[in-house]
Amino acid sequence: MKTIYLSCAHALFKHLIAQKTIIEGKKVPLFPGAFGIYGHGNVACIGQAMEEFQSDLPGYRGHHEQNMALTCIGYARAMRRKQIFIATSSVGPGATNMVTAAAVALSNRLPLLLIPGDTFSSRFPDPVLQQVENFHSPTETQNDSFKAVSKYFDRITRPEQILASLPQAIQVMLDPADCGPATISMSQDVQGESYDFPEIFFNEKIHEIRRIHPDPKQIKAAAEKLKNSKQPIIISGGGVLYSEAEAELSAFAKKHNIPVTATVMGIGCMQHDDPYYISAIGCLGEGSSNSISKDTDLALAIGTKLSDFTTGSWTNFQNPDFSLVSINTARFDTTKHRASPVVSDAKIGLNKLSKELGDWRAPSNWYERAIEEKQKWEAYVQKESGPTNQETPSYAQAVGAVYRNADPSDIVVTAAGGLVGEVVQIWKPKQLNTFETEWGFSCMGYEISGALGIKMAKPNQDVVVFIGDGSYLLHNSDIYSSILYDQKLIIVVCDNGGHMVINRLQLAKGGKEYICNFRAARAKNLQFVNFESHAKSMGANGETVESTSELEAAFKRAKNSDKTYVIVIETHGYKWLDGTAFWESPTLENATTENNMKALEEHQMGKKIQRKGV
Known about the structure:
This protein is α/β, with parallel strands linked by helices. The protein is 37% helix and 17% strand. A six-stranded parallel β-sheet has the order 5-4-6-7-9-8, sandwiched between helices.
């Protein structure tokens, strides 16, 4: 067998470069790029290999390890898990900074390859700079913290170990059921050690994501349940997008006359004007979907993990005859809450189930009611998000002003906080796949970093970011990255004076305003940030507006800008669109105030109607 004598670091990247995938009929790199922040543990060997291979694997400079990994995640989501970005860091805090991003990828079932530097496999220099020692387990380092948030973890302590490890990591990241982040922890002395690697390890390999076919018995059982239902709904999740089953979902709903709701991560799988799309469901969803979900006798969940924000902490389904059918590539998800499971790719599962159902259609009166609910709720949302002359506009009015002037192809991005709920209800996708919110881990700081990755994946579409002042202050350095790499973003900063959606929760649970609201943070020198000046200092264009009419005009200027444009607007901290679903969150049992007692009463009412799981 022919061999090539290479350092472990060079062999690692040479193998990754040889991996290809097919997108729209064209062969492209499976790993289109790598973000890195160098320090000891990855600069000398991994860094040199990246520089030498940059023509085949472009490198990008990060400004914070968590941010750059979030950018990788945004790219993978926009590319529907067909391409995977790499993030590499130094040993120590550089590595642990990426743990949160790994959790975002794991929660959202998205591929991400993390290559943090590690300590020396020889242990001779121990403890090295930035090493966290475990006195009772010398093999453990801070990088072991990745194990809890990785689908695949390996520590490389000999060069030849990558021969087995890298192919396994790649298969995990491409597996539709097991997809998530892979962490290859590289002992820093091993990175520079050389080995005679087999030439075939560097042969080109083309990957195509496999599609899981369902068991006919599971399809038959699911069809029987549907045929016995009178008021079914569909809950479409992110798995519909990853399967590229948008057309199949629309056709299935039309053929069988079933209204479609969406999880936050599933929005964009149907256009707003599709006659069978109702709205988002759950705690961030709309009154239309939440109303019919309370009466539905069967939910067909497709590609969703059924989180508490989707199910209203399992209070949304109050029909005593309610049953659940789940189509998902992951067995773990299909069997939640006594569901009738269909372990399957969404596209194939829908086609097989439709064939088994034949000409069966749900009753027309149920579909008609869903449409009535949709129209009623949309009238409310349009009223609340319409033009206003009030001194301080609400989140909803700010989002509405931008949405009215957006192009159908514009992609909206937001994450965490109160903006998600407002954007979900107002920003109705005019085209498929134009809604890229992160909610699986609800990670503050994803907004700008994730949007950068989405823009890199979709360079011909404008990416519009909605971010609150709290998230902006947490992570904003990728405004600078967007300038450096000519990736224009339109960023709308809604400044409501703090973490006001958590302030809202604080009050709803009977507490008093404390810390969340800047004005209640007991600050000795209360000041507010000039976000416009800050953004401009990083090279962006920017302006501050005082009304929704000014916001509309500013957005048009942003559309014509040749680089990232930041628009700042003060927004109301206490005005929100109505919530129509229960969410279980901790409540004091020993209620001591009138507000505590009210919160406890609401909590107990919700608990009474919860569907008890298994």
